[in-house]
């Protein structure tokens, strides 16, 4: 006859583990919830293919307030404008796209995958001012705030384990 001595310990552990998973955002949601307000555009991304270098990024344009679903490239095929802090390995993915800002302010970059993001201007990384998570079950994995002046920036996505990444840039108001 089987022994159930460990059941008293394992059952609560399994329940606790599934409760934590239920709090984990996109991966554990039964059905996604479309974000509202400034993040509402997340629900209708336009398809784009990320660039493999800074020169080609000029042809991949992100528009503030409009979500894009970027098809990412294998990391060995990407030449970043600036070496990312976490570039990823040979099996990860990444890519670049340009973004033009017309008004100075804090801008939020929402990303739907676990990846590293940088904004590059004039060969230097823009230092982020805040990091957070997106609304639960929205598909937004993280949101990073950057102080931006008018001009063109290169968004770099690195170390993604996914072949695509949804991204949305919005002003923080």
Key features of this structure:
mainly beta, 6-stranded mixed β-sheet, disordered N terminus
Please give a structural write-up.
12% of the residues lie in helices and 37% in strands. The protein has helices at 7-22, 54-57, and strands at residues 46-49, 61-62, 68-71, 73-74, 93-101, 105-111, 116-121, 124-125, 130-132, 142-148, 151-160, 164-171. Strands 1-3-12-6-10-9 form a six-stranded mixed beta sheet, with no helix packed on it. Strands 2, 4, 5, 7, 8 and 11 form a six-stranded mixed beta sheet that branches. A hairpin with a 2-residue loop joins strand 7 and strand 8 (124-125). Residues 1-26 have low confidence and may be disordered.
Compute the number of structural domains.
Answer: 1
Shape: globular
Strand order of the largest sheet: 1-3-12-6-10-9
| Percent in helix | 10-25%
In DSSP terms (H or I, runs of 4 or more residues), the helix count works out at 2
Radius of gyration over alpha carbons?
19 Å
CATH domain fold name: Jelly Rolls
As a percent range, the share of strand residues is 35-45%
CATH second-level architecture: Sandwich
Overall pLDDT, averaged?
A: 86
Q: Give the SSE order as H and E letters.
A: HEHEEEEEEEEEEE
How far is the N terminus from the C terminus? 64 Å
Report the top-level CATH class.
Answer: Mainly Beta
Number of strands: 12
pLDDT under 50 segments (min length 5)? 1-26
Could you say which structural class the secondary elements and strand pairing correspond to?
mainly beta
In quaternary terms, these chains amount to: single chain
